[in-house]
UniProtKB/TrEMBL annotation:
It comes from Pseudofrankia inefficax (strain DSM 45817 / CECT 9037 / DDB 130130 / EuI1c). One of its GO terms (molecular function) is CoA-ligase activity. The keyword Ligase applies. Residues 401-476 form the AMP-binding enzyme C-terminal domain. This is AMP-dependent synthetase and ligase. Residues 26-344 form the AMP-dependent synthetase/ligase domain.
Length: 489
């Protein structure tokens, strides 16, 4: 029985299996087209076996286990097994270069590392252990998520809430908007599970939903899975949604069972958003703004966005918003400043590795460094991160705004805008463009004129570079600082 403070995650798995042992719980769609499926009892048994195998390698309550594997059964059972013994799972990017991997692992300080080398042996070891339920233990912290760049100390963001499940953690976003949600949900997981959007789908599993996990995102395979598995919801980045919308024949594919989708992790170009309104319906598309540090959440549904175009919404699930200047003083509606949030979960995080916590006000509002403004009705409009803002010729330009304009060009598949050193302008607005396959345009000048037709002329790029493919990670993230460094700063 769930209480106000929830139940330990390990116990929750046992309860699900006892209630409906043969209900399908996890499906992993492999890159080779194969499919591995587990029902609730198999998930429960596997978590107990993996917990015992990890304990045999020295993992104990309060320890951390690093998960450096692709989306897989091993990743899921490794995380659940860690919770079973009261440990803290920390997914880590599997594709880091060796030097960065070692830096990150030094900060994680994991007792056990599960990677592509150790996972097969652990799976074999787990199979030899009994599957009966382990004693109930609560992890002191729910999980960790890594956030590391090419320079500086890697950050490992630890959710400091105990590893206990509550129904609130599994409540679908759509239910907060009054939309129809069929339970159990069938949740597609296109994102790598080292990313927050991917890993947090384990809350849906704990809520009784079925996860359809892609080993690696591929747009065509994702559409196939949506049709074949009866997917009802998924969370995706704008880049993923762009690739899904570009699948040949997408208008004729069966998306009828998709009840709602959630977009996060980056700003959504208006043209792409309207395309998804056509593919689904405005009331089935939800956008959210938040951060792994859990300062708060902002959300908006598509039909509401149509009356507030460009907004990412209002405070969600108890989140309060303020826009403050560099001295933490409030600014008037319509004025850009730093976005500060406060919610019931504000402060439920810590950093390993000695990184300072995010700036906060004396009364508990925190900021991740994003800039934006509020309108008179309290709707938030994001600009970009303060650190990404380009000062060119004395004027402030937000890269996301320029990227949004360029992304509306029908022959542009992807674009990133950075500021490069320039003797005349201080920083020169430079667009790095990936053309849509099969096209030869636009030219550099056409890109510049395209932006000038939509934004103030000083926001248009001074130079445009064309590349075969932008270097996005599996989570579709990109490092602006690395792109700038590669081009001379």
């Amino acid at each position: 029985m769930t209480t106000a403070v929830g139940v330990p995650i390990g116990q929750r798995l046992s309860d699900l299996a006892a209630a409906d042992p043969h209900r399908l719980s996890v499906v992993v769609v492999r890159q080779d087209g194969g499919r591995e499926a587990l029902d609730r009892q198999q998930v429960e048994d596997g978590a107990n076996r993996w917990g015992r195998a990890l304990a045999a390698r020295g993992l104990a309550a309060g320890d951390r286990v690093a998960l450096l594997v692709h989306n897989s059964v091993e990743l899921v059972l490794g995380a659940l097994g860690a919770w079973k013994v009261g440990a803290v799972p920390v997914p880590v990017r599997w594709d880091l270069p060796a030097w960065e991997r070692e830096r990150v692992l030094a900060v994680v300080a994991a007792r056990v590392v599960i990677d592509e080398g150790t996972a097969p042996a652990l799976r074999a070891e787990a199979a030899a252990f009994p599957a009966d339920p382990l004693p109930t233990v609560t992890s002191p912290h729910s999980f960790g998520i890594c956030s590391s760049g090419s320079t500086g100390t890697p950050k490992v963001i630890v959710n400091t809430r105990p590893g206990r499940w509550t129904a609130e953690l599994s409540t679908p976003f759509a239910e907060n908007f009054g939309g129809p949600v069929t339970h159990p949900q069938v949740v597609l997981v296109p994102a790598p599970m080292y990313h927050t959007n991917g890993f947090m789908t384990l809350n849906s599993l704990l809520g009784g939903d079925r996860l359809v996990i892609m080993e690696k995102f591929d747009a065509v395979a994702a559409v196939d899975a949506i049709e074949r598995e009866g997917v009802t919801t998924f969370t995706a980045t704008p880049t993923m949604l762009q690739r899904l919308a570009a699948v040949p024949g997408i208008d004729g594919r069966d998306l009828s069972r998709v009840e709602w989708i959630l977009q996060g992790a980056a700003m959504m170009p208006a043209a792409l958003l309207r395309r998804w309104f056509e593919l689904l319906a405005p009331e089935k598309v939800i956008m959210a703004y938040g951060m792994t540090e859990q300062l708060g959440l902002v959300a908006i549904r598509g039909d509401e966005w149509l009356t507030h175009p460009g907004s990412v919404g209002r405070g969600f699930r108890g989140t309060e918003l303020r826009i403050l200047d560099e001295n933490q003083n409030p600014v008037p509606a319509g004025t850009y400043g730093d976005v500060y949030l406060r919610s019931p979960v504000t402060g439920a995080y810590d950093y390993l590795g000695g990184a300072p916590l995010l700036p906060t006000t004396p009364d508990g509002f925190g900021t991740a460094g994003d800039m934006g403004h509020l309108d008179e009705q309290g709707y938030l409009y994001l600009a970009d991160r303060r650190v990404d803002m380009i000062i060119t010729g004395g004027a402030n330009v937000f890269p996301a705004e320029v990227e949004g304009a360029l992304s509306e060009h029908p022959d542009i598949a992807d674009v990133v805008v950075v500021g490069l050193s320039d003797p005349a302008w201080g920083r020169r607005i430079h667009a790095i463009v990936e053309r849509r396959p099969g096209t030869t345009g636009p030219t550099e000048q056409e890109c510049i004129e395209f932006v000038k037709a939509r934004l103030a002329s000083y926001k248009a790029p001074k130079t445009v570079e064309f590349v075969a493919e932008l270097p996005r990670s599996a989570a579709t993230k990109i490092s602006r600082s690395a792109l700038v460094a590669e081009r001379g700063g």
